[in-house]
Amino acid sequence: xAAAQAEVEDAxxxxxxxxxxxxxxxxxxxxxxxxTALADRPDARLVFTAxxxxxxxxxxxxxxxxxxxxxxxxxxxxxxxxxxxxGAPFDLVWQSRSGAPDAAWLEPxxxxxxxxxxxxxxxxxxxxxxxxxSDHMEVVWDLDTEARRTAAELGLDFARxxxxxTHPTFVAMIRELVLEETDGAPRAALGKLGIxxxxxxxxxxxx
Length: 207
What we know:
Largest sheet: 4 strands, parallel
Structural class: alpha/beta
Number of strands: 4
Helix content: 40-55%
Number of domains: 1
Number of helices: 7
Distance between the termini: 16 Å
Order of helices and strands: HHEHHEHEHEH
Strand content: 5-15%
CATH class: Alpha Beta
Shape: globular
Radius of gyration: 18 Å
Mean pLDDT: 92
CATH architecture: 3-Layer(aba) Sandwich
């Protein structure tokens, strides 16, 4: 898009909204999805998922490295605490791995983790795809189909929390992010990693 913009005289300015992994609207939407999934299984283990990426890519993200995985963990922590209170236990795992089989990607895979939980005696899980914002194919196939099948083979009670989708707090958040850019609206964040995507240091997120 930037290359196309450079080719056009008086092209419109392109403004990318900042990261929102810890925005109150995003956290609230996911927390509501988790609460609904927990309704019939209040003691279920919370297992948060995000799209796996190559380890080298994660190591290169942000000045200190690991920005992607740290943001995903912060989202999971905030959602778990919104539902179950401070210090609530949870797991962060990965899904949708692709690419060369000999390349290292973020682990554990959600299916491998379900097997590990079953071996530890866990009987019920709620899988929370906070690394995604809609029920697209990687959620429907990798979780609703493959992970659910794995859980059934293991005798694990399984539920999948809804993605943020069209949840009212998530939709309102998008408007707020636009207003940050157009009207100087205050920036809302719940986490400990700081506002990401604006006022970043040189060399941040080169990949």
